[in-house]
Amino acid sequence: MKHGHDMIPARDNRMVRLLLARWLHGAVRFARDQRGVAAIEFALVAPVVVFALVAMADIGLAVRDRMALDHIVRTGAQAATMNPGTQAVLDVLDAASHGSLTRAGSAAALSVSVVQECACPDAPEVTVACATNCSGQKPTYIFYTLRADTVATGLILPNMAVASRARVQVR
């Protein structure tokens, strides 16, 4: 009985070796070929770079919103130094907020608030009525706390709460 390799004629055996040699030579040449490597590297790196750029744009827009809120609060603080009353300072905040936030989501979520508090000079951490006479007939300190809040909507990052706050002592 003949074994499997004895059944292949010698001429066919050479043909198999020749085909195997050509295949191996082609595989080695393919493995050494550098064409297309740049395209593959670009395909691997490009999504990461695009994600990073869009994330930086999101952060930049949130910082811009914060700067706009700071401007709104500073405008209100400047008005509060003249002690015009809570409603007048709130009106100044509302007027300053128009056009400051250009993105629709941030402008729609904008909220501003003004709180007036008074305290005696000898205990500034204790809030009292503004008509109170403090010890030694000293007038009360008047404080305005101004706050502006919004939500910075991101393109790919989650929404971020952005706020600015100032406390102004009038007297």
Automatic annotation (TrEMBL):
This is Pilus assembly protein. Pfam families: TadE (PF07811). The keyword Transmembrane helix applies. It comes from Rhabdonatronobacter sediminivivens. Residues 36-77 form the TadE-like domain. The keyword Transmembrane helix applies. The chain crosses the membrane at residues 42-63. It comes from the Bacteria. Keywords: Membrane, Transmembrane, Transmembrane helix.
